[in-house]
Amino acid sequence: MIPDNWDPGHWDKESDVVIVGFGGAGVAAAVSAYDLGSKIMILEKAPKGLHGGNTRVAAQGYLNVSSKDDAIAYLTALCGPYKVPEEMIRVWADEMAVNNEWLAGLGGDPQEHQHPPAGIEFPELPGAQSSHKFHDGPKLGYGLTWDRFESFVLERDIPVLYETPGRELIQHPETKEILGIRAEQDGKSILIKARKGVVLTCGGFENNQELIRTYLTGVPYCYPSGSPYNEGDGIPMAQAVGADLWHMNNFAGPSMALKVPEFPATLSMQPLHFSKEFPGGMIVVGPDGKRFGDEKFKTRHGKVPVNGTWRALQVPCPMFMIFDQPLMAAGPLYNKEPNRGWTAMMDRYDWSADNSAELEKGWIRKADNIAELAGIIGVDAATLEDTIARWNAGAGNGEDPEYGRKLMLSPFSEGPYYAIELSPSMINTQGGPRRNERSEILRPNGEKIPRLYSAGELGSIYSYLYQGTGNIGECLGFGRIAGRNVASETPWG
Q1: Cβ neighbours, 10 Å, residue 47
Q2: Tag placement on the chain: N or C end, fewer CB within 10 Å?
Q3: Is a pLDDT exceeding 90 seen at residue 355?
């Protein structure tokens, strides 16, 4: 698009390459293009200190593959019915195989995860043994790998414009090539000339409720566990210049988490973690007062097996974690260690040791008996009492006849009783503008939009199932591809 009353001779700023988004993909694109001699400018929506996207607050793992052929087979199988062009899968495998080499070549210290599972999320699929999870240095999480990534940009003195979101791509009306971008800075529009091109690395739409309702079937609302600045800004920008979209219904979620107005991202409740054991009775019910599944089941990034396929976990809205006094007294319901997740790492919420502060805030609701608790949360008392009675009968025998839960099989003790309202939460979305093997954004007819590239979660290659650490690995791989190819463009002026 061409802004109204735009003087083509006037630009507020200019660079060879403009990269929109300072996360893992933005780092890889910026460093790759810079090292090939291009002048780089990064636009970042978040304030300085809150930048880094999901890469900064993830578990910090990235995917490296040990066999390109096996990796091709594995990713092809992960795509399931949502096919991705063979050439895209091949270049993905090629780049994933050199992630460690790239990191080590820049001074990093690639180390493989030393905790189970070894890295294979879908071991039953062909080629799964090719997947290996790595991170930088001896410790997983805590933003340490991000710190290394960020250092590559800082040591090259690449300018980063914080609190400067991209708003509109500037496209030549005849050639359709991208000439630059309109951004916002300090409440004003600025026009930035991109002599070689623009790379969109601005993440998914996990904090955009309108896009969630539009594209994620059966999810009326959902909240991020990662960066709240991921609002899908790249999607309307790309659409406005003719881009096709793909993988818009794929996302890593949902999980069940606490969302409170005080914080933009969710808080994960420890008793719901699949590997955690706590004393006391605990179940999760929907607004009908009934359980709907195994509360401790380990999903595969939100996917569960259904009739021979994998589908997003179906959760009612709202949900309520119901529990008793022994669990309340067992310690904080929230893991305060800031090893991953936006609320833990960036907002640094200090949950009280005995859960009393959260009870006082109203995040936790309390009642002397189940019927009273049902009234407080707005569910039918008789139904909730029956649900807990059936749970107690099974748990008393060390089993869960309804859903086969294996962990925390304790009956509810005497009151008081507690409830926490839960919401669907997600790590990220995978949809966005469709790209090719050169990271060029495409039109619906398959033609490229000249001088426009993307990488990372915005239009991810993941169409169906997601291998853990695959997104950061993809950010690095396609970020490098985008950086190399945009750097090779002949400047338009």
Answers
A1: 10
A2: C
A3: yes
Structural domain contains residue 196: yes
Q: Does residue 194 lie within any of the structural domains?
A: yes
CATH code: domain of residue 346: 3.90.700.10
Q: Is residue 1 part of a domain?
A: no
> Which residue in the block uniquely carries the two structure tokens 């990034």?
301
For residues 183 and 112, membership in a common domain is answered with yes
Domain that holds residue 337: 255-426
Q: Is the dihedral of CA 117, 123, 129, 133 positive or negative?
A: negative
Distance of CA 476 to the CA centre of its chain: 15
Decide: pTM greater than 0.70.
yes
- Can you name the residues that pair with 224 across neighbouring β-strands? 426
Say whether both 294 and 355 belong to one domain. Answer: yes
Per the DSSP assignment, residues forming a β-bridge with 255 are 425
Cα(245)–Cα(295) distance, rounded to whole angstroms? 34
The whole-number average pLDDT for the span 81-96 is: 97
pLDDT, position 30: 98
Question: What does the DSSP 8-state code read for residue 313?
Answer: P
Residue 338, C-beta contacts closer than 8 angstroms, at least 6 positions apart: 142, 344, 345, 348
Query: What is the amino acid identity at position 226?
Result: G
Regarding whether 442 and 418 lie in a shared domain, the answer is no
In which band, very low, low, confident or very high, does the pLDDT at 113 lie, cut at 50, 70 and 90? confident
Mean pLDDT calculated for residue range 324-338 = 95
326 lies in the same domain as 230:
no
Determine phi and psi for 380, rounding to 5 degrees. -65, 125
Q: Residue 362 contacts by C-beta under 8 Å, 6 or more apart in sequence?
A: none
Q: Convert the pLDDT of each residue in 16-35 to its tens digit.
A: 999 999 999 999 999 999 99
Q: How many CB atoms lie within 10 A of CB 335?
A: 17
Q: Is 14 exposed, middle or buried (0-12, 13-18, 19+ CB in 10 A)?
A: middle
Considering its fold, how many domains does the chain have in total?
2
- Least Cα distance to 64 among 105, 107, 93 occurs for 93
For residue 169, what is the domain's CATH number? Answer: 3.50.50.60
Q: What burial class does residue 31 get, using C-beta atoms within 10 Å of its C-beta: 0-12 exposed, 13-18 middle, 19+ buried?
A: buried
> End of a domain among 426, 458, 475?
426
Q: How far apart are CA 358 and CA 361, in angstroms?
A: 5
Residue 6 maps to a domain: no
pLDDT tens figures, 395-424: 999 999 999 999 999 999 989 999 999 999
CA 491 remoteness from chain centre: 34
